[in-house]
Design a protein that fits this description.
alpha+beta, 8 strands
Length: about 150
């Protein structure tokens, strides 16, 4: 991991999920801390990014709030890029689209399954789905601008 990543994130073995890595922002005053630590596992060509949403992430229907889910997806793009070994510095989301398919349950392990479609010199093109067990909650596409090589 480079100096930027080591200064701002923890990326080490997840003590709660053997075989997974824990990806967590160190500055708990940042937006990422609202979602919490993410667990990441590379499964072939798919990065599995996992969290469990709590009451503070819910809407009035007692489902995962769409904003919390979109925030998780955005963070999952970066966690996946780190697990693929193609992202380790300050990058930016250029584009992200989300299709909400059904309400996600609170208190249930939620995973984003992320694929790297293409990497160019400056961009990552990713897609995936969010699932809870066998239930597909959402699908998404995202484009990330990689950090400058300066």
């Amino acid at each position: 991991m480079n100096e930027f990543a080591e200064t701002h994130f923890r990326y080490d073995d997840d003590p709660d999920l053997p075989g997974w890595k824990r990806w967590q922002i160190l500055d708990q005053g940042r937006f990422n801390s609202f979602i919490g630590a993410l667990s990441v596992k590379l499964d072939g060509k798919v990065a599995r990014v996992r969290t469990t949403f709590a009451h503070q992430h819910s809407n009035l229907r007692d489902h995962i709030h769409g904003g919390a889910l979109a925030g998780f997806i955005d963070m999952a793009l970066f966690a996946a890029g780190r697990s693929f070994g193609v992202l380790s510095g300050p990058a930016s989301t250029l584009d992200m689209s989300v299709q909400f398919i059904t309400g996600g349950a609170i208190g249930v392990a939620t995973e984003a399954h992320v694929e790297l479609l293409r990497e160019t010199g400056r961009l990552l093109f990713l897609r995936g789905v969010v699932v809870q067990d066998d239930v597909m909650v959402a699908s998404f596409l995202g484009t990330i601008r990689k950090p400058s090589q300066k």
